[in-house]
C-alpha cells in the first residue's frame, strides 16, 4: 500500500496450532510469536530495495497510526514495526486488549561484545526484574517471584575422521571401522560417500518453575542438562542429499549419467578407433574429453586381469529381480570392466574407447598364450540371460579350458564329459562284460541289449557345444528357412549325434540302432503290452529278454536320418573322438566379435551391465530394519529393467526417447543411493537405539516424498527440520556422542554460559521470564469491559535468546492506560 511518497507492505500471521497450551516451547512458532508470546499478529514495514528500515521516531509514528486504525475497527491483534538495521531484528509493537489494557512490545539484539553479566542466568534474571522493580533497590538481595523456563540447544561436532577417532564406541555401542565412515560398506571399493548426517542437535527443555532470587538462578546455571524434563534430537542432514543438489554428489548415479551421455554420442562413429583418434574429421568435441594417462590405464587393466582371482570365490549375490536386467553379474570380468570404466577419466566416450581397445588386446593375449581369463567360469552352460559380450567371454574361457582338458588321459577326471544314464550299477557286477568294450561309464540298471543277453552300458559322452545367443538365433533362422525342423535338426546336430552314437557303440559292441534309441531317446521306443501283466509287472527287464517293443513312427520311417548316421558311424570312445568344438576357430570368432564391435553396441551392453552391477553392489548393504528402503530397492530394479528393455531387444536408435528415459532412471538411482547412505549412517550411529534410526529415516523419507510434490520449492527452501523426543534409556546414547573436548581442538572457547554437557556449552540458550497478576483487586482492575471478571494476565514477559557472543531480548509489558 502507498501513503504519500512511500510504499508499505503488511503481512498477517495466524496461529498455526490453536490447541497448543500457552507456555510450551512450540517449534512451529513464528519468530515474533516466540519472542512476545502472541498468537495472531500483523507486521507493517516500508518497502525498500536496500533493506533499510525506519528509525525509532518514524517507526513510533507509523505504529501509532496503525494502533488507531486497529482500535477503530475493534481489532485486538498486535501490530509490529521493524526498526533500525535489519540485522538487529529490532521491533516495536502495540496491542489493544480491550477498553482498559494495552500491551507494548520491544525487541533488540546485541551482535557482539555481550556484557559478561548478561552471559549468566543471574544477570539475566536481574535484567528482567529491573523492568518492574524500583530502581533504588539492590536486586541481588531482594526476592521477586517470577516464572522461569529454559531451552538449551547443543550440537555435536561434525562427524569427521578426527572426531570419530575420539568417539568412545565401546561405551556407546558404536564402532568406528577404518579411516572413513563407510570404509566397510559395499560401495567403498569404488568411491567414498559423504556422510549425510553432519551432526545432531540436542534440545533440552527445563519445565516451568518459580524462582525467587539471583542465587537460585546461579544454581540453575550449574545444573546438568540431564535434569531437563525433555530431550529432543534434531539431525542435521547434508543439503547435498536433496535432488536439487546435482553435481555436488558423487556416486554410482552421477557416473551412470555420464555413461548414458557416452551412449548418446556412440552413434557419431562407426568404429571405436574413430573416437580414439582426435585427428579425424568432426572430432573437435573429442579434444576436450579427458583420457587418463597410460599409467592409470595399465593399473586398471592389472586389476581386471590380476593373477590368482578364482571364479569359485565369486557368488552372484545380487537382487533376485536383477536377472531381468540383461547384463553381466557384478563379479564377472565384463561387469568389472564396466565398473572401472565408470571411474576411468570422466567416463566419456573417448576414454571408454581407449580402455576397451586395450581390454580386447589383453583378452587376445590370454587367448594366444592359452591363459584362462580371470573372473570367468570355465565350466557350466552359458547364461543366455546375460549380455552378449559376457556370453562371448564365457565361450572364450570355455574353449581354452576344454582345449587343456582334452590333453588329459581318460584315467583322469575328464572335464566336458557327462553321464547320460538314468541309473548306474557297478560295472564289475556285469558278468557278460566284453573285453572289447571301451569308454563305459557303467551299467544302465534294468536294461538289456536286444541282440545279446548283455547289460546295456552307458558311455562317456562329450558335452554339447556351448552356444551364445547369436548362435541360437542363427540356428532358429536356419530352421525357419529349411521348414522341416526334424530333418534339419538331425543334420544340424549331426556332430553331436555322431559322437554319442560312436561312444555308445564303443561301450556296447553288440548294440543295434534300437538299443541306442532306447537309451538316448526313450520317447521314441514304444513298449509292447506283455501277455501276462500279472506275472511280468514285478519282474525286471533283464528277466524278460529279449525286450519287447518297437521304434516310434518317426524313427521307423524309410530313409530316417538317425539310422543313416548310425550305419556310417564307427565305434570310438570319447577319448579317441574329435572334439565337437574347434577351439581355435571358436576362439578366433569370439575375438573377431570383440574387435569389430560397433560403439553403440558396446555402450548398450555397458549401460545394462553397469546399472545392474551398481544396483547389486548397493543391495547387500546393511541399513537396519527400514521397510521403505526395501520397497525403494525393489522398485528401482523394476524401473531399470523397464527402461533398459529397448537396449536388450535391439530396438534402440539414436533418435529414440530411450536416452531421456535412461536419464530419468539415473535420477531415481541417485535418490535410492542417497537414501541408502542415510540409512546406513543412521544405523551405525544408533545400533543401540534402532527406533531413533527408523523414526529419523521415516521422517526424512516422508520429507523427500513431499518435496517431489507441488510444494517442492517451498519445502526445499525450508529444509528438513525434525525434532524427535528421546526416551530415558536413549539419553545416554546421545550424551556419549558429545565427546569431551581436548585442549588441542581449535574450536574450544572460554566456557561462559554454564549448563555444560560433557564439557560442551549450549550453542543457543533460550529463556522466558514472566510475571502474572490478577486483573481484579489491584491497580490493573476495571469494572467494565472484557476483563471485569477475575482473570490472570501476563503483565511482564521477557524472551532471551543468546550465546556468549550474541544476545537478543524481547520484552512485552501490559499496562492499564
Polypeptide structure, described:
Helix 13 (about 390-405) packs antiparallel against helix 20 (about 585-595) and helix 21 runs antiparallel to helix 22. The chain contains 26 helices and 19 strands. The chain is elongated. By secondary structure, the protein is α+β, with helices and mostly antiparallel strands. Helix content is about 35%, strand content about 15%. Mean pLDDT is about 80; it is low at about 170-180, about 405-435, about 535-540, about 710-715 and about 775-790. The strands form 3 sheets. The protein has a 13-stranded mixed beta sheet. The longest helix has 28 residues, at about 660-685.
Strand neighbour order, sheet with most strands: 1-2-3-4-5-6-19-18-17-7-8-9-16
Number of strands: 19
Radius of gyration: 42 Å
Distance between the termini: 31 Å
> What percentage of residues falls in helices of 4 or more residues?
25-40%
Protein name: Rab3 GTPase-activating protein catalytic subunit
Keywords: Cytoplasm, GTPase activation
Pfam family, one: Rab3-GTPase_cat
Family: Belongs to the Rab3-GAP catalytic subunit family.
Amino acid at each position: 500500500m502507498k501513503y504519500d511518497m512511500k510504499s508499505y507492505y503488511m503481512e498477517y500471521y495466524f496461529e498455526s496450532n490453536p490447541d497448543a497450551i500457552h507456555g510450551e516451547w512450540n517449534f512451529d512458532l513464528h519468530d515474533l510469536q516466540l519472542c512476545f508470546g502472541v498468537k495472531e499478529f500483523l507486521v507493517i514495514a516500508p518497502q525498500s530495495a536496500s533493506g533499510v528500515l525506519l528509525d525509532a521516531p518514524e517507526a513510533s509514528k507509523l505504529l501509532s497510526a496503525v494502533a488507531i486504525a486497529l482500535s477503530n475497527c475493534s481489532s485486538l491483534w498486535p501490530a509490529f514495526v521493524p526498526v533500525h538495521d535489519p540485522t538487529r531484528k529490532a521491533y516495536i509493537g502495540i496491542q489493544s486488549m480491550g477498553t482498559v489494557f494495552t500491551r507494548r512490545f520491544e525487541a533488540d539484539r546485541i551482535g557482539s561484545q555481550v556484557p559478561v553479566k548478561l552471559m549468566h542466568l543471574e544477570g539475566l534474571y536481574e535484567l528482567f526484574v529491573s523492568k518492574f522493580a524500583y530502581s533504588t533497590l539492590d536486586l541481588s538481595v531482594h526476592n521477586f517471584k517470577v516464572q522461569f523456563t529454559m531451552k538449551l540447544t547443543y550440537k555435536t561436532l561434525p562427524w569427521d575422521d578426527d572426531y570419530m577417532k575420539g568417539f568412545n564406541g565401546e561405551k556407546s555401542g558404536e564402532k568406528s571401522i577404518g579411516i572413513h565412515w563407510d570404509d566397510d560398506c559395499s560401495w567403498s571399493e569404488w568411491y567414498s560417500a559423504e556422510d549425510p548426517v553432519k551432526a545432531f542437535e540436542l534440545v533440552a527443555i527445563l519445565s516451568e518453575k518459580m524462582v525467587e532470587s539471583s542465587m537460585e538462578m546461579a544454581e540453575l546455571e550449574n545444573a546438568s542438562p540431564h535434569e531437563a524434563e525433555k530431550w529432543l534430537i534434531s539431525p542435521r542432514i547434508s543439503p547435498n542429499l536433496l535432488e536439487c543438489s546435482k553435481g555436488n554428489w558423487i556416486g554410482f548415479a552421477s557416473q551412470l549419467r555420464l555413461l548414458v551421455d557416452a551412449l548418446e554420442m556412440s552413434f557419431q562413429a562407426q568404429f571405436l578407433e574413430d573416437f580414439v583418434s582426435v585427428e579425424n574429421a568432426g572430432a573437435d568435441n573429442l579434444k576436450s574429453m579427458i583420457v587418463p594417462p597410460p599409467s592409470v590405464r595399465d593399473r586398471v587393466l592389472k586389476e581386471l586381469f590380476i593373477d590368482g582371482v578364482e571364479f569359485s570365490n565369486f557368488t552372484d549375490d545380487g537382487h533376485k529381480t536383477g536377472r531381468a536386467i540383461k547384463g553381466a553379474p557384478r563379479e564377472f570380468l565384463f561387469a568389472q570392466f564396466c565398473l572401472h570404466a565408470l571411474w576411468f577419466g570422466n567416463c566419456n566416450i573417448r576414454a571408454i574407447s581407449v580402455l576397451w581397445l586395450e581390454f580386447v588386446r589383453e583378452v587376445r593375449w590370454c587367448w594366444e598364450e592359452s591363459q584362462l581369463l580371470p573372473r570367468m567360469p570355465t565350466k557350466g552352460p552359458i547364461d543366455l540371460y546375460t549380455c552378449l559380450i559376457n556370453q562371448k567371454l564365457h565361450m572364450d574361457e570355455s574353449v581354452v579350458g576344454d582345449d587343456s582338458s582334452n590333453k588329459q588321459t581318460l584315467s583322469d577326471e575328464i572335464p566336458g564329459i557327462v553321464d547320460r544314464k538314468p541309473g548306474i550299477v557297478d560295472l564289475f557286477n556285469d558278468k557278460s562284460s566284453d573285453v572289447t568294450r571301451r569308454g563305459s561309464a557303467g551299467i544302465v540298471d534294468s536294461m538289456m541289449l536286444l541282440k545279446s543277453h548283455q547289460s546295456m552300458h552307458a558311455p562317456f559322452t562329450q558335452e554339447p557345444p556351448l552356444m551364445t545367443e547369436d548362435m541360437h538365433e542363427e540356428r532358429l533362422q536356419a530352421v525357419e528357412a529349411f521348414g522341416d525342423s526334424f530333418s534339419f535338426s538331425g543334420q544340424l546336430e549331426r556332430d553331436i549325434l555322431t559322437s554319442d552314437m560312436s561312444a555308445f557303440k564303443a561301450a556296447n559292441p553288440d548294440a543295434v540302432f534300437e538299443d541306442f534309441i532306447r537309451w538316448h531317446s526313450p520317447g521314441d521306443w514304444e513298449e509292447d503290452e506283455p501277455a501276462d501283466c500279472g506275472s511280468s509287472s514285478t519282474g525286471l527287464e533283464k528277466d524278460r529278454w529279449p525286450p519287447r517293443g518297437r521304434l516310434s513312427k518317426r524313427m521307423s520311417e524309410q530313409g530316417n536320418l538317425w539310422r543313416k548316421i548310425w550305419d556310417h558311424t564307427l565305434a570310438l570312445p570319447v577319448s579317441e573322438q574329435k572334439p565337437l568344438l574347434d577351439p581355435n576357430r571358436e576362439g578366433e570368432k569370439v575375438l573377431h566379435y570383440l574387435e569389430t564391435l560397433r560403439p553403440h553396441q558396446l555402450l548398450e551392453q555397458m549401460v545394462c551391465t553397469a546399472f545392474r552391477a551398481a544396483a547389486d553392489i548397493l543391495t547387500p548393504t546393511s541399513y537396519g530394519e527400514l521397510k521403505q528402503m526395501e520397497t525403494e530397492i525393489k522398485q528401482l530394479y523394476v524401473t531399470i529393467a523397464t527402461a533398459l528393455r529397448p537396449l536388450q531387444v535391439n530396438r534402440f536408435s539414436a533418435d529414440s526417447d530411450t536416452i531421456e528415459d535412461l536419464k530419468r532412471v539415473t535420477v531415481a538411482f541417485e535418490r535410492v543411493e542417497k537414501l541408502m547412505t542415510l540409512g546406513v549412517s543412521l544405523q551405525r550411529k544408533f545400533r543401540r537405539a534402532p527406533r531413533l534410526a527408523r523414526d529419523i529415516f521415516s521422517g526424512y523419507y516422508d520429507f523427500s516424498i513431499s518435496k517431489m510434490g507441488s510444494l517442492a520449492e517451498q519445502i526445499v527452501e525450508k529444509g528438513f527440520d525434525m525434532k524427535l523426543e528421546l526416551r530415558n534409556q536413549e539419553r545416554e546414547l546421545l550424551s556419549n556422542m558429545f565427546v569431551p573436548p581436548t585442549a588441542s581442538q581449535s574450536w574450544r572457547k572460554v566456557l561462559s554460559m554454564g549448563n555444560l554437557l560433557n564439557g560442551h556449552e549450549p550453542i543457543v540458550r533460550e529463556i522466558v521470564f514472566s510475571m502474572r497478576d490478577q486483573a481484579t483487586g489491584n491497580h490493573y482492575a476495571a469494572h467494565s469491559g472484557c476483563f471485569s471478571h477475575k482473570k490472570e494476565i501476563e503483565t511482564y514477559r521477557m524472551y532471551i535468546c543468546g550465546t556468549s557472543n550474541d544476545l537478543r531480548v524481547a520484552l512485552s509489558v501490559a499496562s492499564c492506560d
